[in-house]
Design a protein that fits this description.
Blueprint lengths: L1 E5 L4 E5 L6 E6 L4 E7 L2 E8 L2 E7 L6 E6 L10 E4 L4 E5 L6 E5 L8
Antiparallel strand pairs: 1-2, 2-3, 4-5, 5-6, 6-7, 8-9, 9-10
């Protein structure tokens, strides 16, 4: 399976690699600018108006489990989201040509 973001449709699609068919869809309340799986966790970037964030999403319910709001301003939005496969996310900055790195927030565990 693979995930694909639909920017203006505000959706994340789970896609069957063998056929390209959409298996299921998660709705978002913000534009989806990148989708990534790291250690079994679904993350996606958002950018709408001048507000951007990185979100950790529950793949079953679509609920936002954690959100890291990015600084506001021209050229600092999240226009793409990639990962080093561990703790760093790389966020494209739209037409600014800037790339920023953000450390993956740690999920808290109950004792």
């Amino acid at each position: 399976m693979a995930q694909r973001g639909e920017h203006q449709g505000r959706k994340i699609h789970q896609i069957a690699l063998a056929t390209g068919a959409i298996r299921r869809t998660i709705d978002s309340n913000r534009f989806v600018t990148g989708v990534n799986w790291v250690d079994g966790e679904l993350r996606h970037g958002t950018w709408e108006v001048e507000e951007s964030s990185l979100r950790h999403i529950d793949p079953a319910s679509g609920a936002v489990l954690q959100q890291l709001d990015m600084p506001q301003g021209v050229g600092v939005g999240v226009s793409r989201l990639e990962s080093d496969g561990s703790d760093l996310f790389y966020c494209g900055g739209g037409g600014s040509g800037k790339v920023r790195a953000a450390r993956r927030p740690q999920t808290s565990t109950a004792a």
